[in-house]
Specification:
Blueprint lengths: L2 E6 L5 H13 L3 E6 L5 E3 L5 E3 L2 E2 L10 E4 L3 H7 L5 H9 L6 E5 L3 H6 L27 E4 L2 E4 L5 H12 L2 H10 L7
Parallel strand pairs: 1-2, 1-6, 2-5, 6-7, 7-9
Antiparallel strand pairs: 3-4, 8-9
Organism: uncultured Mycoplasmataceae bacterium
InterPro entries: Class_I_gatase-like, DJ-1/PfpI, Prot/Nucl_acid_deglycase
Pfam family, one: DJ-1_PfpI
Length: 186
């Protein structure tokens, strides 16, 4: 069973959290929303309050097949700060493992700043590619090695379905898309 740990902070982009979680749950993926704060409740960028499953300080990240970093400028600033050494150490320590690294929008810059994108193609929201310029690809969704990245909230559905395709199966991605009446790239 595929498990995705979703790391969030106050200011995380609403749709970049809610849409993937919904699609991944429909595909049978176990998702766990993890707050970087000492409390489980976070306030997303556009005012939605979310009660997370757990907090980062007590969560074991090694039990996940994938780690997802949603975007949102204020949330990303907190995810990449010195306040999250447990997250940063886990990411840097698992670059050569079978863990999938997922991100959208500004969050891909975290992987770039950590030097994780060497030899990996990735995308992000325009203006955040400076930390990984040589790896940057100007596309909506990019799959490269164990990374799946997307450039922004307008491509959140395609991103979420691509994750299902790669971590579960193309058939499951197509089924969930059809069940949702999704008419995009699937």
């Amino acid at each position: 069973m595929v498990k995705i740990g979703i790391i969030v902070a106050n200011g995380t982009e609403d749709s970049e959290l809610v849409v993937p979680v919904d699609i991944w749950n429909r595909a049978g993926i176990i998702t766990k929303i993890i707050s970087i704060h000492k409390k489980k409740n976070v306030l997303l960028a556009n005012g939605i309050k979310v009660s997370c499953h757990e907090t980062l300080d007590v969560e074991n990240l090694s039990k996940y097949n994938a780690i997802y970093l949603p975007g949102g400028t204020k949330g990303v600033e907190q995810l990449s700060s010195t306040n999250t050494p447990k997250l940063i150490n886990f990411l840097k320590g698992n670059t050569n493992s079978n863990v999938w690294f997922l991100s959208i929008c500004a969050a891909t810059s975290i992987y770039g700043k950590l030097g994780m994108l060497k030899g990996v193609k990735a995308t992000c929201y325009p203006g955040y590619e400076s930390s990984f310029r040589s790896s940057y690809v100007k596309q909506p969704v990019v799959v490269s090695k164990h990374f799946i990245t997307a450039n922004g909230p307008g491509n959140v559905f395609d991103f979420a379905f691509k994750v299902v395709e790669k971590l579960v199966s193309p058939a499951m991605a197509k089924k969930v898309a059809n069940d949702m009446l999704y008419k995009g790239n699937k």
